[in-house]
Amino acid sequence: MFLFKTWQFYSSLFFLTILFPYFKPFRPVLLGFIFAIFVVITQYHLFYSFSIENPQFDDEIYFRGQVVKVFGEEPADYFQVSLSDVGEHTYLPWMNPKANLAISQNGLKIKAGSIITGMAKIRPFRGRKNFSGFDSELYAFRNQIAYKGRVLEATIAAQQNDAYYEPYRQFSWQVFGGLKLGWLYHTLMTGDTSQISHDTRIMMRRLGLSHIMAISGLHIGIIFGISYWFVKAVVSAYLLLHTNPRFQKYNLTTFYMCLSGIIAFIYVYLSGFSVSALRAYSMLLLAITAYIACKKVSSVRILVTALSLILLLDPFLLLNPGLYFSFIAVAVIFFVMSSEHTQHSYKINFLFKIILLIKIQICLFVCLAPLSIYFFKGVSLAGLLINLLAIPVLSMIVFPFMILALTLSFVIGYASWGASFVLTSLDGCFHFLLQGASMISADHGWLHTGSSSLSITMFIYLSLLFIVLAPFRKLVWLPAAIYAVHRLSSEEVLWQLDVLDVGHGTAVLISSNREAILYDLGAKYFNRYSLFEHVVQPYIEDNHIVLTHTILSHQDKDHVGGVKELLAFDGIQSFKSFHNGIPNSDCNLRTVKMGEVTIETLWPRAGRASKNNNSCVVKVSGGNYSALLTGDIEAHAERQLVNVLSAEQLKNDILLVPHHGSKTSSTMAFLQAVNADIAIYSRNYASQWGLPHTDVRERFTRLGTLQLDTALDGHIRIKVTPDGLITEKAREVMKYWFLPQ
């Protein structure tokens, strides 16, 4: 269903429809397919499709809502609000869209929970779309973020917090906030990750411990287990003191499980009903129900039923990576435990449990590594060993310690318990262990593998499935053979041009044989969000590219915003050829050979009139094709280029449109001299400067030039092969019908 309006969707529907009359086994599949369509469309229109206003960015519009979170430190200049009113439209309580808004109004104290009203310039949310890096549009859809914009004026109407779990979270942070690992204890007890810094998240991922920061089956299982044994101990003590034959008639195990299930539900409730918590609790509830009903239900059926219930409640959870990690992890644990129990049911002892734990950890590492590589471009090697210690410590020491701390703080009071020697001593021990693990695994704890395609990931899991299922083990070679044929049939790429989607700005990467030259770096916003760091660098790392040269066209902020981040990433080396190691200088006029391509800087020369006309113009050629990168040159520089350069130098197959399509550039004489087959605009969607200008578009249309646009197509990738050009657009390759097109 997520591939609706694509050939995959229609071919699957056609295939099932043809087989329906002739093969009975396909009838449930087709009926399930139709039911899935109904569920997805219903969920979409109920919870994800907002009847939103569609204002132009220059329009001022009224809004009202409750602040969900504040980004950065006070005074807040960027925040997220759950909207109840936009313009004349009032939303139903369960369909409140969110908006990310910037504000420059001084003296306005914006805090989470505040009711804010005012006027803003807003527009429907649309993010940058690249082949690598963070997909902001998918994230926004999952979190119901429908708008972004800028607040012109606002007032705080009230301070209100309707969230039932907020008082509990505040109390938890009061107890744990002063401790070294307070963020960890607070997250484990509340599911609130707002206190975890970016650096801490990276550290936990490197250690393979990211899974403990999201309330999941591990946490709920620990809470259930601790509750079960605690309730059993209390009841057993009571029975020892009050012997009563009546209790022998009851199945006390059922009582223990039900009460523990209720306690686990309270934990899920207080954690804010996170997605992963609901997944885990549904499986626990199914297991308890099966026990009470005296039904022997296989672990596979429990897993499949829980997955079906979760997807019935929200099919768009398939977009959440956590769904795959959670269910694959549980499936692996079930498989290993069942197979080991079958083989060694007669000798379950402590040594057996240790060996079983090691086997589970190894199998989890093997089976989750492809997912980790696909979603996070790497895998934690340290996690293979660290989790062997972390899980028992978390289960038997940390969780009981946190529950005891919260309970005593609630009963006795924070002042007397919070500063206790026991609390701070245990925290110091846990912090020492975590820091020690981090230091030991600092250099080799995380293996960065680069990007992996969906097809490779599916081939790997298909092979693992064939290995597990005995009847199909003889076919284990089939996925590898299919993938080998796929690779052999792929065309040889001589060189590649990537125009990355960096909004209003430019960042172009030309690569050949894993070497690359970078032309411009994109912008940097709020002096802290660098497009190089968040878009360009991930693409370079994911594709194992060595940055050989960097050229900065000129010193406008939308072209050189990421210089500081580039220097931190790669040093000054890549600036030496074209800038003599000085980033804020004009480029040198020279020719460099790199792999299969030749890079030649053609401009600037004498007679420069302005900073834009001083832009470095670069010609990239190889394999009978060439591209011209023009920076922000305007009509004056274009006339000079036509007069100074030869016809051969000016003629190019691909043109990066000068100055993002501004009317001050792209004169007809220049475009005719270049005579490009493909013109590429690098610009922002709904540009406030009205780019590209209508006159510029019309000139290219009259010349019959194919026009590509990062605002409409996203990241544009052109591969030069011996047989021609292959053009790929991120918004076509990574296409979902429910996301902006």
From TrEMBL:
Record field: transmembrane: 29-47, 207-230, 250-270, 282-312, 318-338, 350-375, 381-404, 411-434, 454-472
Q: Could you confirm whether the keyword Methyltransferase appears in this record?
A: no
- Where in or outside the cell? Cell membrane
One matching Pfam family is: Competence
Q: Which InterPro entries match?
A: ComA-like_MBL, ComEC_N, Competence_ComEC/Rec2, Competence_DNA_uptake, Metallo-B-lactamas, RibonucZ/Hydroxyglut_hydro
The annotated topology with respect to the bilayer is:
Multi-pass membrane protein
Q: What keyword terms does UniProt attach to this protein? A: Cell membrane, Membrane, Transmembrane, Transmembrane helix
Domain named Metallo-beta-lactamase is located at: 504-685
Protein name, UniProt field? Competence protein ComEC
Q: Which organism is it from?
A: Pseudoalteromonas aurantia 208
Write the lineage as a comma-separated list. Bacteria, Pseudomonadati, Pseudomonadota, Gammaproteobacteria, Alteromonadales
Q: Which gene encodes it?
A: comEC
